[in-house]
Amino acid sequence: MQKFDEMYAMLPFDGSDVREHYKRYAQWLSKQPPDVMQARRAEAEMIFRRVGITFAVYGAKDEGGAGNERLIPFDLIPRIIPAHEWANMQQGLVQRVTALNRFIHDVYHGQDIIRAGIVPADLILNNAQYRPEMAGVHVPQDIYAHIAGIDIVRAPDAQGNGEYYVLEDNLRVPSGVSYMLENRKMMMRLFPELFSLHKVAPVAHYPDMLLETLRASAPATADEPTVVVLTPGMHNSAYFEHAFLAQQMGVELVEGQDLVVKDKFVYMRTTRGLQRVDVIYRRVDDDFLDPQVFRPNSTLGCYGLMEAYRAGNVGICNAVGTGVADDKSVYPYVPEMIRFYLGEEPILKNVPTWMCRKPDDLQHVLANLKDLVVKEVHGAGGYGMLIGPAATQAEIEDFRRALIANPSGYIAQPTLSLSSCPTYVESGIAPRHIDLRPFVLSGREVQMVAGGLTRVALQEGSLVVNSSQGGGTKDTWVLGEGRSTAPMTQSQTLGGMTQTQGGF
After folding, report:
1. Which of 363, 386, 415 finishes a domain?
2. CA 250 vs CA 226, 231, 267, 463: distances in Å
3. Domain containing residue 457
4. Which of 82, 143, 366, 386 is deepest in the core (most CB within 10 A)?
5. Three-state SS at 114
6. Are 456 and 463 in contact (CB under 8 A)?
7. Where among 361, 387, 415 does a domain terminate?
8. Are strands 162-170 and 349-350 parallel, antiparallel or unpaired?
9. Model confidence over 134-190: pLDDT tens digits?
10. CA angle, corner 168, sides to 323 and 319, nearest 5?
11. pTM for the whole thing?
12. For residue 117, how many other CB atoms are within 10 A of its CB?
């Protein structure tokens, strides 16, 4: 299987054949004493731990029954993307997210794409993420996925050149953007000299862009919209991110118990009484949002919230029912959505996918399990997945039984040779597989910061980058032309509120 490394043109690498956009960095790295870099790694870990940049792993319980809090390992070697590659990727992301938003609106209104025979009706109407409660509901600007996290991988083509593919569309409550922001702050704190050598596109303005996007989804009657971040609470795996984004945007972080609905309007309880809420950036799944409509035993949402939402008195981001478009069984149809709604050819490719709900596809998958990656259509976090080449015979046979019992619950894809990037490991620097999650914001316009969250599979040979399964992260640099000349005015205080624009 061919390999593609982001930094080196040849593997195994020996410091030669450095790609053009990495040359300046490689020269700098070659001059760094190993003990200095080791000290920087230790410093990064200490700061992340002190600031509390952690996530909880469910199922791993300590003696007190609380979730196991872990640091996401941070690697010092950045993933660098040249400007022309990012420009093409950005164009493809805008196109894809625009089509997905058109699709979700269509699903809950005219269902033109179903009537045209492009997407099967049962795939949508029997989908666990389809919310009939949203049928005919108007949402501001017809936008459903205000925040999208699109997972992109790179793999070599027949000529050995790296080609980008979309692996997944995360449209419900995509997470990880806080790590993108904190990784950048960390790199600027540890290696300020690197940012005078490179013209790195900034990411610090993401919270401002996010707030602008959220305000754009407010009811038309709200002149100065009040925005809140709705969290399930401190035991959620992404609680740090919820608190961080609320802090960065200067808005309240609330739990379901802090909200109340009166006369189809949403209010939050404050020390000064009830205050109207216009936009809810929810980090809670649909099922838990409103016990009146969804799970009656949920304590994470607010009773009557859907009534206020359907009345047009509050914006919810992402919209309820958005998950119908990020279901893995819907993913194979996205290129057709782009052609149907936009009349354009897809800029970013899908990974070839077999839909096990189709009898012929199922037979192919069952015959080739040892060579394929098989995923649950509703799975997340790298769980509920079979990586055939790395699986034991017993695991393959277990998955075979699950597939036969519920074929519509799975898709399969070829095992891609994901691109690698040099990474610090115990033995020194070695290639490790990576992916990229850019965050696409849809409000009055579709926009994003240049970069995203690069995740790295720290185990040798592993293709699983998820933090819950031992993955780490890297800073992602999108380069402009020439050297950076802007002063470093970005705050280097980890986890803090103070951020100024410029320099990165």
Report:
1. 415
2. 11, 15, 18, 37
3. 20-351+416-478
4. 143
5. helix
6. no
7. 415
8. parallel
9. 999 999 999 999 999 999 999 988 788 899 999 999 999 999 999 999 999 999 999
10. 25
11. 0.89
12. 8
